[in-house]
Amino acid sequence: MDQQRLENAKRGVTVNQEGKEFSFTSPIPGVHIYDNVWPESDAFFEKLLTPEFWETNKDIPGARKWVREDFFDDVEYTKDNGKKSDTCWVYSHPEANEAFRDVVNSYTFHWNIDPRSRESLRISRFSNGEFFGAHADDTYATPRTVSLVYYPNDDYEGGELEFIHFGVTIKPKAKQLFIFPSGYSYEHRITEITAGNPRWTIVSFLEFGDDFETTKRRKDLDFPYKPIFKELF
User: Fold this and answer.
1) Is residue 59 part of a domain?
2) Which residues, in sequence order, are CB contacts of 10 under 8 Å at separation 6+?
3) What would you report as the CA-atom Rg of the chain, rounded to the nearest whole angstrom?
4) In this predicted model, what pLDDT tens digit does every residue of 27-50 receive, in sequence order?
5) CA atoms within 13 A on the CB side of 223
6) What's the pLDDT score for residue 137?
7) Which of 75, 79, 97, 199 could covalently link to 126 via disulfide, CB atoms 3.0 to 4.6 Å apart?
8) In the structure, what pLDDT confidence band is assigned to residue 159 with cuts at 50, 70 and 90?
9) DSSP label at 101?
10) Total domain count for the chain?
11) What is the CATH number of the domain that holds 109?
12) How many Cα atoms within 13 Å fall on the side-chain side of residue 5?
């Protein structure tokens, strides 16, 4: 990292290629939390539940209506290894793209990362009793470099984000954007929602590969995706 970026880090800012600064806090090295991102996002999330939104966006590549995501990695899922939530995907939406673009670019420029592609916007809704067990975002079947998680609301109980290997648990605040490495060291989980409104998020991932590479990797794997361990030496 060059001297200017080191000075920026001391001041708690990342700077994009146009020189625009974005303040952040960093509870863990590599994890940046940006406040007051997309203050107008409430209207977007309200629209997600209306038929009119999906009719308007039906021609957007990758747009999918709500699906149920209850899955597990072993014979029986638990709060440690499973997931319960509702999810939909929207690849490209002008409001969201505009809201995230500059701050995300400032993070990648700060760390000298040059990703080649971005996954669809994964919009999740965790209601009471729902959770997401321990997982890393980067796997063989889902090769990812940088994770982006946006929180439009915080009017719920539970739903903390725990970075397991760092011993750090954070209750995200409304309108915060978390950006962090996707690798195994940053394995994390979402604790159970216990009361209040649903916990909403928009999640996306930056990666060095492309959809072709991901499709090729998944082709011969069963779901849930399991690693195939081979002797290397």
Assistant:
1) yes
2) none
3) 18
4) 999 999 999 999 999 988 888 778
5) 6
6) 95
7) 199
8) very high
9) H
10) 1
11) 2.60.120.620
12) 11
